[in-house]
From TrEMBL:
Species: Neomonachus schauinslandi
Annotated DUF4939 domain residues: 28-138
InterPro entries according to UniProt: DUF4939 (IPR032549)
Protein name listed in UniProt: Protein LDOC1
Length: 148
């Protein structure tokens, strides 16, 4: 009986040690994530920026060009903070509300590759919210023809 209790106590102590180590590792991961979050927040909203922070977009087709110009201008001025397509797409997503936010949820849920491709993401937004690049391209082609 005593031997069984000693073995049980030993097993409990081993389990406690393993859980303590795992807890320490998780606390370190949490600390790193909190630091990373703080760094990302500073990058997305710098204290002094010559371009105002973009307004949110809720899906109105008439506001899409303005939204794209605002976000592109903001990212251009802060290009060191938006160093890859995934950061740019994440920034756009953070500004979506209403219908636009509902539109993006399935892409996030299925971890779509479009979330890492800024141009493709913009093209999808344009297609969904009614921006027709073909009309602009046709107008540009006509203007180019006039120039020659």
């Amino acid at each position: 009986m005593v031997d069984e209790l000693v073995l049980l106590l030993h097993a409990l102590l081993m389990r406690h040690r393993a859980l303590s180590i795992e807890n320490s590792q998780l606390m370190e991961q949490l600390r790193l994530l909190v630091c990373e979050r703080a760094t990302l927040l500073r990058q997305v909203r710098p204290p002094s920026c010559p371009v105002p922070f973009p307004e949110t977009f809720s899906g109105e087709s008439s506001r899409l060009p303005e939204f794209i110009v605002q976000t592109a201008s903001y990212m251009l001025v802060n290009e060191n903070r938006f160093c890859n397509d995934a950061m740019k797409v994440a920034f756009l997503i953070s500004l979506l509300t209403g219908e636009a936010e509902e539109w993006v949820v399935p892409y996030i849920e299925m971890d779509s590759p479009i979330l890492g491709d800024y141009r493709a993401f913009l093209d999808e937004m344009k297609q969904c919210f009614g921006w027709d690049d073909d009309e602009e391209d046709d107008d540009d082609d006509e203007e180019e023809d006039d120039d020659y």
